UniProtKB/TrEMBL annotation:
Keywords: NAD, Oxidoreductase. One of its GO terms (cellular component) is cytosol. Pfam families: 2-Hacid_dh, 2-Hacid_dh_C. This is D-isomer specific 2-hydroxyacid dehydrogenase. It comes from the Eukaryota. Residues 126-309 form the D-isomer specific 2-hydroxyacid dehydrogenase NAD-binding domain. The keyword NAD applies. Residues 57-336 form the D-isomer specific 2-hydroxyacid dehydrogenase catalytic domain. Belongs to the D-isomer specific 2-hydroxyacid dehydrogenase family. The keyword NAD applies. Signal peptide: none annotated.
Amino acid sequence: MRSTPTRFLSSINSHLSAATSNMKLLYPTSLKLDVSQIEGFPSVTLHPYDVKAPIPEEHVDAEILVTWTNSSDNLKDAVNRLTKLRWIQSLAAGPNDVLSAGFDTSKVAVTTGSGLHDHTVAEHTLGLLLNAARRFYEMRDYQLQGKWPGHLGGPQPDRPADRFTTLRDARVLIWGFGNIAKTLTPSLVQLGSHVRGVARRQGVRNGIEVYSEDKLAELLPETDALVMILPGDPSTRHALNAERLKLLPKHAWVVNVGRGTSIDEDALYDALVEERIGGAALDVFETEPLPEPSKLWKAPNLILSPHAAGGRPQGAEQLIVENLRKFLAGQQLKNLI
């Protein structure tokens, strides 16, 4: 459920007016933050905490919690013991861990790390697309066998219509056209791709035509590479299912750097084994780490990366400071859920 900004503005203003001492902000030691960039607010004291351990007793009166890779036990402990908590700043683009921990979001504002992972995820996505087109993964397999993959070298057809071999003139459809897509698109365009987007609302974003999801049946058959950057929520579960996979051309590749739940993995496996699509490159999975018995390990033309696209929040200090200023001023927070 989305929070009501007006409710939080009223709650924050009421809380600030009643405050008689410094507020505590707890920041995680799970990444290297330049705390000097956050210091300087006379009404706020900063305290590090271990995201894998219970909150120290001396800090259970904290009102602000910054999270990054917290364990589920740590977050459940915070739910039960941080009774004065008013705001959680997650550094994850999709704070599913925070939302599923049980915080009362009618009393605790939750803001996301949207924007902190745009460049790293965009770069990784570009790498997966180039890997798929140039078949570096197959070259590596032959190298490990001490064999020369002659069929992948020498004279090659230029931009064959029945294969995905280059980003030049490739029809790339980005499903989930947000900040990451906007960061990725210029690189694709520079390499000659024809980029279109899909989102809940249609329009033109950064010069790219973005269609609503009801146009997928028309767009998927015209796609060489489908890039999925969907969030993980009930509305996106198995968004790419067997029916939609059948709409893709036989040579099309699927790249997923959003959330693993957005793809029906059994349907994808069947499409790969039956050669109904060209291949897939997945950075996210329904269960992580990917279980050893999973069929996906041995699926043909499948590139797996271990949720490696993000994991490096960039500009976290600036986001914390911006939202801290807004919080203290009783203004609407950035990236408020």
